[in-house]
Design a protein that fits this description.
disordered N terminus, five-stranded mixed beta barrel, alpha+beta, 29% helix, globular
C-alpha cells in the first residue's frame, strides 16, 4: 500500500496513502488520503463526522460547516464511496474511542471526491439487523460488507490457506481435475451439461474428483490434493449447500488405512487448533469406532462425542417379561434400546410427556421410560417388570438413583434411528454436552453393501470404488451384507467432515463388486471405461479422503448454517437470487443444443 510520508498532497496516491485501519496517534500531523465507504454519519450542527470504512478498518473523518465541501459530504448517502484528504489530528482525551484501533485520531477533510454514490439501501450494512434471507442473498454484495460477514469469509480464506500449507508440508502435490466429465453413481444426481458439438450427449459436473484422483495415482504420482469444487443436484440442508461445495480432496499411493489416518489427522487437528479460539481439539490419533458399534452406542454413524450418553441394548431384559408390548415385539425380531437420561429423575412429569410427544412426532409409537428414584423405580414400564429385570437395565445403562432411562423398541434400523435422535435431544435438553471443544473420531468398518427395502435390491452403502475387506475371496464366499469395506468417515461434534476409503485397484475385484450390486460387466466397462482400462495397466494400492471445506469453516465460525460461510450461496430452493439462476434459455439456444423442453403441467 502506498504510504507517502512527505505530507505533500500532490505526492499522494490518487486514492489512498493509508488504509482506514492503520492510522494512530503517532501519525498526527501527516497529510493522509483515505478511500472507502461511508459507514455512518453524525451531524453535530457545526461539525459533520463520517466513519469511513474499508476492509482494513474504520477512520473517523470530520468536516466543519464552514467548508465549501460540507454540503456535498452531507448529501452523500451511507455506503457511497468517497476519497478524502487532510491532516491527521489527535482527538482530545474526552473524545477518544477505545473501541476501534484508530480511535485516538481523526482526519480533517480538506479535499473530497465522490467516487460512487449509493442509492437507498435495501438492507443496513452498519448493523446486524436481520433483513431476511431472501434480501440478504439478493443483495449479497451488501450483506458481505458487514463486519461479521467479512470476518467469516476471511476466515474461510485463512482456513484454506492453512490447509494448503499443511498438505504441501506433508509432501502432497496440488493438481486440478476436469469440471466437464462423465456421469457416475456417487449417490446423488448429477448436474448435466448438454454438448453442442455432440448433439444429444451430455457432460456431467463432477460430484467429486473420485476417478480422476485415482487415475493420478495410476499415472505414478505419489500424493495428490486439491481444494476441489463438487456439484450435486440434491436438496439443501443446514450443513450442506445445494448445488456446489468444496472439499479437500487427497489421495496417496502404497498406503494402508492407517497411513491415510496418520497423514490427515495432523492437518485436521492443526487447522482446528489454529482457529479454535481457545476451544479444545482432540489430539491425534483420533478414536476409531466401528460402524456397528457407533450405531449401537450412539444410534448414528455421525456421533457427537460431546454428549456423554451411550445407548445400550436391553432386549433380553424384556424378553418374556410382563411388559407385553415390548416382550411380544422382541419375540418377533425387534430390539429394545435404552437411552440413559442422567439427572432426569428430578424432572417433572411434563418432561417425560414432552419426550413422548416428540417421539410420536418423529413417527414412533412413543418412548417408554423408567425413573430411578431413591430405592425404587417409577413409571408405567417399571410396574410391569420384576426387580431383577429393572436392576439389569439400571446396571446395563450405567444409571444411578436420580437418573432416568427411555426406551426405543423396533426393528434394528428403526430402533437405532429413534434412539439416536432421542440421545441428541436429551443431550441438548439436559444441557450435558461438553462445552467449547471439537471432538473428533473415525467411523470405520462400514458395510460394503446395504439392502434397499423399497427396491428389494442390494446396493453399495458408501463408495462403489472401495476395496472390500478380504478382497475377491470375501465377495465370492461371504454374504454380501456381511462384507465390510475399507471405508471411513471423519466426524466432529456430530458432523461428518470427510468420507474416504482404500480404493479397489484390481479389475477383477471391481467387476465382482459391481456385479453384486446389479451391474453387468459391460455396463461397468461402459460407465467407468477410463478407470477400468487404467486398472488393467498396473495400479498401485491407494486410498484417500475428502474433508469438506464448507463444514470445517462453518464449525470454526460457530455457525449452524453453511450459507453463512459461503461467499455467494444459493437459497434452500437452489436458486441464485442475485444472478437470477437457474433461468430460462432462449429458444434459439435450445435449438442449437438440439433440446426440446417437456415441462410438467403448471
Amino acid at each position: 500500500m502506498p504510504n507517502d510520508q512527505t505530507g505533500a498532497p500532490g505526492a499522494l496516491h490518487p486514492y489512498r496513502s493509508h488504509t482506514c485501519g492503520v492510522l494512530r496517534a503517532a501519525d498526527a500531523g501527516q497529510i493522509a488520503r483515505l478511500s472507502g465507504w461511508i459507514h455512518r454519519k453524525r451531524d453535530h450542527g457545526q461539525l459533520l463526522f463520517v466513519d469511513l470504512r474499508d476492509s482494513f478498518g474504520q477512520t473517523q473523518c470530520v468536516i466543519d460547516i464552514s467548508s465549501p465541501l460540507f454540503k456535498e459530504l452531507e448529501a452523500a448517502r451511507v455506503e457511497s464511496v468517497i476519497t478524502v484528504t487532510g491532516p491527521v489530528v489527535e482527538r482530545s482525551a474526552d473524545t477518544i474511542n477505545p473501541q476501534v484501533p484508530t480511535g485516538e485520531i481523526e482526519v480533517r477533510v480538506e479535499s473530497l471526491e465522490i467516487q460512487s454514490r449509493a442509492e437507498i439501501l435495501p438492507l443496513q450494512v452498519n448493523s446486524d439487523e436481520d433483513a431476511g434471507e431472501d434480501i440478504r442473498l439478493r443483495y449479497r454484495y451488501l450483506d458481505l460488507r458487514r463486519e461479521k460477514m467479512q470476518a467469516k469469509i476471511l476466515l474461510r480464506s485463512q482456513v484454506i490457506a492453512s490447509i494448503r500449507r499443511r498438505m504441501i508440508e506433508q509432501g502432497f502435490t496440488e493438481f486440478q481435475t476436469p469440471i466437464l466429465t462423465a456421469s457416475s453413481p456417487e449417490g446423488a444426481r448429477d448436474y448435466l451439461v448438454p454438448s453442442r458439438i455432440h448433439p444429444g450427449k451430455f457432460y456431467a459436473l463432477p460430484q467429486a474428483p473420485q476417478m480422476f484422483k485415482q487415475l493420478i495415482m495410476i499415472a505414478g504420482f505419489d500424493k495428490y490434493f486439491q481444494i476441489a469444487p463438487c456439484f450435486r443436484d440434491e436438496d439443501s440442508r443446514a450443513d450442506r449447500s445445494p448445488g456446489e461445495f468444496y472439499q479437500l480432496d487427497f489421495e496417496m499411493s502404497f498406503v494402508t488405512q492407517d497411513d491415510v489416518f496418520a497423514a490427515i489427522e495432523p492437518v485436521m487437528a492443526g487447522v482446528f487448533e489454529e482457529f479454535a479460539r481457545g476451544r479444545a481439539v482432540t489430539a491425534p490419533p483420533f478414536p476409531r469406532i466401528p460402524y456397528a458399534e457407533a450405531m449401537l452406542k450412539y444410534g448414528s454413524d455421525k456421533p457427537d462425542l460431546r454428549n456423554p450418553i451411550e445407548i445400550r441394548d436391553v432386549s433380553e431384559a424384556f424378553r418374556g417379561s410382563g411388559f407385553g408390548i415390548f416382550a411380544k415385539a422382541v419375540e418377533k425380531g425387534a430390539v429394545v434400546r435404552a437411552i440413559p437420561a442422567p439427572g432426569a429423575g428430578a424432572r417433572p412429569r411434563s418432561f417425560f410427556d414432552k419426550m413422548n410427544d416428540w417421539a410420536r412426532a418423529e413417527g414412533a409409537a412413543g418412548l417408554g421410560y423408567i425413573v430411578f428414584a431413591e430405592g425404587e423405580a417409577k413409571g408405567p414400564i417399571a410396574k410391569n417388570l420384576d426387580a431383577e429385570r429393572i436392576a439389569n437395565i439400571k446396571a446395563a445403562a450405567g444409571l444411578s438413583d436420580g437418573d432416568a432411562v427411555f426406551f426405543a423398541c423396533d426393528k434394528v434400523r428403526g430402533a437405532e434411528r429413534l434412539a439416536g435422535a432421542a440421545r441428541s435431544k436429551l443431550g441438548q435438553d439436559l444441557d450435558i454436552l461438553a462445552p467449547d471443544c471439537f471432538k473428533f473420531c473415525w467411523i470405520v468398518d462400514y458395510p460394503m453393501y446395504e439392502f434397499d427395502e423399497q427396491t428389494g435390491k442390494i446396493e453399495f452403502s458408501h463408495n462403489p470404488f472401495s476395496m472390500p475387506q478380504g478382497g475377491l475371496e470375501a465377495l465370492e464366499k461371504q454374504d454380501p451384507l456381511e462384507v465390510m469395506a475399507y471405508q471411513y468417515d471423519i466426524v466432529c461434534n456430530g458432523i461428518e467432515l470427510s468420507s474416504g476409503a482404500i480404493r479397489n485397484h484390481l479389475p477383477e475385484v471391481m467387476y465382482k463388486a459391481f456385479a453384486i450390486a446389479g451391474y453387468a460387466r459391460e455396463e461397468v466397462e461402459s460407465r467407468f471405461s477410463g478407470l477400468v482400462s487404467a486398472l488393467k495397466f498396473g495400479a498401485p494400492p491407494h486410498g484417500g479422503s475428502a474433508p469438506g471445506i464448507d463444514r470445517i469453516v462453518m464449525m470454526l465460525a460457530d455457525e449452524p448454517n453453511i450459507r453463512e460461510v459461503v461467499t455467494f450461496p444459493m437459497n434452500q430452493k437452489a436458486e441464485d437470487l442475485m444472478m437470477h439462476a437457474p433461468a430460462n434459455i432462449p429458444p434459439e439456444r435450445l435449438k442449437e443444443l438440439c433440446i426440446k423442453l417437456d415441462l410438467p403441467p403448471a
